[in-house]
TrEMBL record, chain A:
The chain crosses the membrane at residues 22-44, 119-140, 152-174, 213-237, 271-290, 321-344. Its main location: membrane. It comes from Albimonas pacifica. It holds the Pfam family BPD_transp_1. CDD domains: TM_PBP2. Belongs to the binding-protein-dependent transport system permease family. The keyword Transport applies. One of its GO terms (molecular function) is dipeptide transmembrane transporter activity. One of its GO terms (cellular component) is plasma membrane. Keywords: Cell membrane, Membrane, Transmembrane, Transmembrane helix, Transport. This is Peptide/nickel transport system permease protein. The keyword Transmembrane helix applies.
UniProtKB/TrEMBL annotation, chain B:
CDD domains: TM_PBP2. Keywords: Cell membrane, Membrane, Peptide transport, Protein transport, Transmembrane, Transmembrane helix, Transport. Pfam families: BPD_transp_1 (PF00528), OppC_N (PF12911). This is Peptide/nickel transport system permease protein. The chain crosses the membrane at residues 44-65, 107-134, 154-178, 221-249, 273-294. PROSITE patterns: ABC_TM1. InterPro entries: ABC_transport_permease, BP-dependent_transpt_permease, MetI-like, MetI-like_sf, OppC_N. It comes from Albimonas pacifica. Residues 105-294 form the ABC transmembrane type-1 domain. Its main location: membrane.
Length: 353, 308
């Protein structure tokens, strides 16, 4: 749909209106996806065997109180009205109260989310810094050992259960070698020493000059970030390799070589510039799936992030927290993917048409 | 392939290589054989084939391969390390881990097959209808597909299972709900390329109903790409199912589901490492097998999108 409208406009107008149309299209599909996501979580919340009223008043409340809360929560209204009400609450950042922590879910999420972001960001960064050069290197040496390494790594990264890899990592590097700290984000006696400014311990402790805590946090962070980073690296390297091979087979590369451009220039200035644009989407995808995959890794590493918040809430039948967490992670996931898609369209003139 | 140059070789191979097949059946067999020849020469694909075949055999012959039923506790043999008698050791209830993994292959196959037979028909139906009908039907259906494509799979599956209750069937349903959308995309793309073809117009001119055209002429042509995609997706399906099992939302103990086995074995990680790591290795191996197989199948069935 977006493609058609922007294609129609592209003949008559130069870049600016086209970019505007692409943005408008992306915003429209973002809104639709958001509505779909909330509709599904809403339905899940209604299907849930747990009684939402009982969850609020407790099972010793009198019939009178129960009825009052039932009406207050609007459960007598038709479903679409309840959905609109739910949507309104979400838009104002109100996900209700968590039964488990007895705090607003929004507050909990703000507290847990930085830990997840810290992990996913570092892993994606590591994946890019190592994966992109590896992918390029493999493509340039197609058929040599580095190429095989990248191909095997790519397939392995696609099929390894990350939570299992995390456990094996813990077994080897924490249990046997003792190189890194165990599960958790920080040693228990450092817990709460640093005031939370950003919620990211590395930044907070560095800001306050608490270097012991900083290094302790690093030793806890290294393993989970490496495991996730390996997954990111496998995917990014594999895609970089295949994009790069695609570009190196094009005629403009041949033209550049005939022109006498150095190999370095052919690879990095000609081919890689086109690959980089395509990689935007891949990096976005990696980042989004790491955020989502946090549910599994955080369980393995006892990492106090949003994934663990969702799963522990789930086992305590704390539905507000589960749905709130799902919606927030879902929005981030959708948002990152849309954003990278949009960036790709803006950066690559061919993708606009 | 050297055999093809020899005229009229005798026997089965000669029949399979005959340049002028006598029946439709023979022609089909020949096409299958040629595909197999191409497939066989690809070592990576063969590795995948061997792994998946081993999985199928393990599931089929589990009662003969294993010495125990993998469920009955034997408290005298708790947490034994790997040995000649217990190849992968025993778990906290003294059950042989190798036996449990073999029995668990049935659960893995059950999940994978169930998800496939839910997902492929739904995706095919939505995709072909959207592509064939066009117009607003197409726009609406594809918008729905886009919304599902954009969803975070694991988290939604998690929320679904949370609502429906833990168990294999609900895990399958949750995975299917989050997996069907790419198939609709693929089917639609295939339909759009063949919709204006002469043979479709000919079928229409003969008075074939829309339903018949979709069922007999359009769907068979989409099947190859759907099968390839399905094989490639198997790894993802297995990993999601194992992840749900790991979180305690899939198959429930004492069932020997691999993810659930990792989850219950986690507490023994540092002292009896074989308890949680062995089932994880099985998951890794099987999803790798499907990946490799899918890659090879793509080259045989779907030469258009073959990788560089």
């Amino acid at each position: 749909m977006t493609e058609q409208t922007s294609a129609a406009a592209s003949g008559a107008f130069p870049a600016a209106p086209r970019a505007l149309k692409a943005t408008a299209g992306a915003v429209l599909s973002l809104v639709l996806t958001f509505l779909g996501l909330t509709a599904i979580t809403f339905v899940i919340g209604r299907v849930m065997p747990a009684d939402p009223v009982l969850a609020v008043v407790g099972d010793r409340a009198s019939e009178e109180v129960y009825q009052r809360v039932f009406l207050e929560m609007g459960l007598d209204k038709p479903l679409y009205e309840q959905y609109l009400r739910y949507l309104g609450q979400i838009l104002t950042g109100d996900f209700g109260m968590s039964i488990m922590t007895t705090r607003p879910v929004t507050e909990d999420i703000l507290r847990f989310f930085p830990a997840t972001l810290e992990l996913a960001t570092l892993a994606t960064l590591a994946g890019c810094l190592l994966g992109i050069p590896m992918g390029v290197w493999a493509a340039v040496n197609q058929g040599r050992w580095i190429d095989h390494v990248v191909r095997v790594l790519g397939l392995a990264g696609y099929s390894v259960p990350v939570f299992w890899l995390g456990m094996v990592g813990l077994l080897v590097f924490y249990g046997n070698l003792g190189w890194v700290a165990g599960p958790g984000r920080i040693d228990i006696y450092y817990d709460g020493v640093v005031d939370s400014v950003t919620g990211v311990i590395l930044i907070d402790s560095a800001l306050q000059g608490e270097w012991d805590i900083f290094w302790n946090a690093v030793s806890h962070l290294v393993l989970p970030a490496s495991v996730l980073g390996l997954y990111a690296l496998a995917y990014i390297a594999r895609m970089t390799r295949s994009f790069m091979l695609d570009q190196l087979g094009q005629e403009y590369i041949l033209a550049a070589r005939i022109k006498g451009a150095s190999e370095f220039s052919v690879i990095w200035r000609h081919a890689f510039r086109n690959v980089l644009v395509q990689l935007i989407t891949i990096i976005g995808l990696t980042y989004a799936s790491l955020l989502e995959g946090s549910v599994l890794t955080e369980t393995v590493f006892a990492w106090p992030g949003i994934g663990q918040y969702i799963t522990t809430s789930l086992f305590n039948a704390d539905m507000n927290a589960v749905l709130g967490g799902t919606v927030v992670v879902g929005i981030c996931f959708v948002g990152i993917n849309m954003l990278s898609d949009l960036l790709y369209k803006l950066a690559d003139p061919r993708a606009r048409a | 392939m050297t055999m093809a140059t020899q005229p009229r070789a005798a026997g089965l191979r000669g029949w399979l290589m005959d340049p002028s097949p006598a029946s439709t059946w023979q022609a089909r067999a020949q096409r299958g054989y040629l595909g197999w020849v191409g497939f066989r020469s690809n070592p990576i694909a063969m590795a995948g084939f061997v792994i998946v075949a081993a999985l199928l055999l393990a599931a089929a012959f589990a009662p003969w391969i294993t010495a125990t039923d993998g469920l009955t506790p034997n408290l005298g043999a708790r947490l034994l390390p790997p040995s000649a008698e217990h190849w992968l050791g025993t778990d906290q209830l003294g059950r042989d881990i190798f036996d449990r993994i073999v029995w668990g292959s049935r659960i893995t196959l059950y999940i994978v097959i169930l998800v496939s037979i839910i997902v492929a028909p739904i995706g095919l139906a939505v995709g072909t209808i959207a592509g064939y009908a066009g117009g607003w039907v197409d726009a609406v259906l594809m918008r729905i597909v886009d919304i599902f494509l954009a969803f975070p799979r694991l988290i939604l599956a998690l929320a679904f299972v949370a609502a429906l209750g833990a168990g294999i069937e609900n895990a399958v349903l949750a995975i299917a709900l989050t997996t069907w959308s790419p198939y609709a995309r693929i089917a639609r793309a295939e339909v759009l390329t063949i919709r204006k073809s002469d043979f479709i117009v000919a079928a229409e001119a003969q008075g074939a109903s829309t339903f018949r055209i979709i069922r007999r002429h359009v769907v068979p042509l989409c099947l190859a790409s759907v099968i390839v995609r399905l094989t490639l997706d198997m790894a993802g399906i297995i990993l999601t199912a194992a992840g749900l099992g790991f979180l305690g939302l899939g198959a429930q103990p004492p069932l020997p589901e691999w993810g659930a086995m990792i989850s219950t074995g986690r507490q023994f990680l540092l002292d009896q490492w074989w308890v949680p790591t062995a089932p994880g290795a099985a998951i890794f191996l099987v999803s790798l097998g499907f990946c490799l197989l899918g890659d090879g199948l793509r080259d045989v069935l779907d030469p258009k999108s073959a990788s560089a």
